[in-house]
Amino acid sequence: MALVRSVTFTALVVVALVLQTSVFSHLALAGVVPNLVLLLVVAMAIARGPEAAAVLGLLAGLALDLMPPADHVAGRWALALVVVGYLAGRVRSDAGSSAVAAVVTVAACSFVGTSVFALTGLVLGDGGVTVAAVLKVVPVSVGYDVLVTPVVLPLALAVLRRLEATRVAW
Q1: Which fold has domain 2-169?
Q2: CA 39 – CA 131 distance, rounded (Å)
Q3: For residue 158, what are the contacts with CB-CB under 8 A and spacing of at least 6?
Q4: Domain limits, the chain
Q5: CA 18 to chain centre
Q6: 22-to-9, 25, 151, 162 alpha-carbon distances in Å
Q7: How far from 23 is each of 18, 27, 49, 105, 110, CA to CA, in Å?
Q8: Interval 81-115: pLDDT, tens
Q9: Can you list the alpha helix ranges (DSSP code H) found in the chain?
């Protein structure tokens, strides 16, 4: 059963990565696409808690860092998604209780994740990252993530909860 869960988690991450970097790249606003990987980490946090979400955040973040057309220092998204997974997992009982709480959680996590990613770029001197660019990109990113939340989060939660129910039945 653990193998089925691992394969399913891997498949979810791969689908999110491919959609985020290929399909949604054509719908970019100010160079920003919806962060489907972040939404998947939030869904994991709601379904399984902070530890599982932080681990998924680390692994999915590293994959996102290394996925072309990445042009930044590897590890920035991994750090941001670990923080997002942990924070979202800490509020999971509230976030899982209503749609409004889930959207607020996604908005907060999107803000935190994008900010951590941007601030690490500033600290590391990553090219093209300026305070003006950060102030422009963060609100667009949060808005885009909130916009796709009603579609992505329920699907991811349904898959993760089904896996959890299957695990409990065994």
Answers
A1: Arp2/3 complex 21 kDa subunit ARPC3 (1.10.1760)
A2: 25
A3: none
A4: 2-169
A5: 14
A6: 20, 5, 18, 28
A7: 7, 8, 29, 25, 20
A8: 999 999 999 987 665 568 888 899 999 999 999 99
A9: 2-18, 36-48, 50-66, 76-90, 92-95, 99-124, 131-169
